[in-house]
Amino acid sequence: MVKTDSAISTFSNSKMADPSFATSGGSNGLAQAEQVRVISRDEHEAAAASLAEAFRYDEVAQYFVKTPDTESWTLDQKWEVHLQLMRCIVLAHCISGLALTYYRMPPGKNMDDQKTMLLSGLSELNKQLSEEGNCRFIEFMQLLHQTKTEVLGNYDENSWYLVYIGTRKEARGQGYARMLIDHVTRQ
After folding, report:
1. Which residue among 10, 43, 116, 157 has its CA within the 20 to 30 Å range from the CA of 3?
2. Neighbouring C-beta atoms of residue 152, cutoff 10 Å
3. 0.90 surpassed by pTM
4. pLDDT tens digit string along 3-20?
């Protein structure tokens, strides 16, 4: 597994580091990486590990794992399910969306169509999430689509939505998230 220093936006200390990836340290830092690049399917696990770490204590990201019926699970068991969820989400974006050094869905696309669910492993999460976690995941996805449609109305089919953007604790405050937002808004 490749060590990543910040979720989504930064890969450093790795074989994948190149000028189009931001780095989290060293004298060049952010100036070294003014570009954002697409994450390939082969890189989804490293990106997911970074994303999972960035959202380790996020209440919304933990909503599917920390349920009343998982109180007997160990922290390691909960972490593995959280990590697997992130792997599936990143891979779903590699398949049907756009996984740059952050993840977003293009107009008219969703990560929960049948083909993407099957290929990304999202359809298998029900075997890892608890019964309550499954209910929450399904409810959350339905609510996401409903809210997006209600808020955006006629613009929904022509809009992108940002799914996750996060930075590992040790790489925060260095401008990586800003770099990603700036990149997207310039497009």
Report:
1. 116
2. 13
3. no
4. 333 334 322 222 222 323
